[in-house]
Design goal:
The protein has 165 residues and is an alpha+beta fold. The protein has one domain: Nuclear Transport Factor 2, Chain: A. Helices cover 33% and strands 38% of the residues. It contains 5 helices and 6 strands; from the N terminus they run αβααβαββββα. Strands 1-3-4-5-6-2 form a 6-stranded mixed β-sheet.
């Protein structure tokens, strides 16, 4: 019993001995958060050219990015992403992007700033008139000039696929 007590004290001491380290700062208000809101407003208006101005020309889009049925996800360039936005704009009506929770900007100690934003996208297929509602999370990394240098996107495209049938 004495050995068990000593072992428990040793383990609990080791747990409390862990040092915390700060890896950066979290902002609830930041100019780059407003960029995300501007992008959402431009998407709703169908302005792919306006959206493209917020991205560095060498930006990488990573993650889902599946705008066309049958095309597997892959990393895309700005030109490919812009074509994808135009595809959605051309084939869908009533596009609405609604924040599901307030975005945050994470200023990491290594210098990069990432805005995390969570959205509900609702849209109606022009051909079938069926509505799709999609949950999406974006992680946008900004450079020091305020341009987006990478975007990671995660969502389930099945509602859009079903609404297009």
């Amino acid at each position: 019993m004495k050995k068990l007590l000593i072992a428990l004290l040793f383990v609990s001491n080791a747990a409390f001995a862990q040092k915390m380290a700060q890896g950066g700062i979290i902002y609830k208000k930041h100019p780059d958060i407003e960029v995300m809101r501007k992008l959402a407003a431009l998407y709703e208006k169908g302005d792919a050219d306006g959206m493209a101005k917020f991205f560095d020309e060498k930006v990488q889009f990573i993650g889902m990015g599946r705008y066309v049925i049958g095309v597997p996800p892959k990393n895309r360039t700005l030109t490919e992403a812009k074509d994808g936005w135009k595809n959605v704009i051309d084939h869908w009506d009533d596009l609405k992007m609604t924040e599901t929770q307030p975005p945050v900007a994470l200023q990491y100690s290594n210098g990069s700033l990432v805005v995390q934003s969570w959205w509900i996208i609702s849209l109606v297929n022009k051909k079938t008139r069926k509505k799709a509602v999609v949950d999406m999370v974006l992680f946008d990394e900004f450079d020091k000039e305020g341009k987006i240098i990478s975007q990671r996107q995660y969502y389930d495209p099945n509602q859009m696929i079903d609404a297009a049938k």
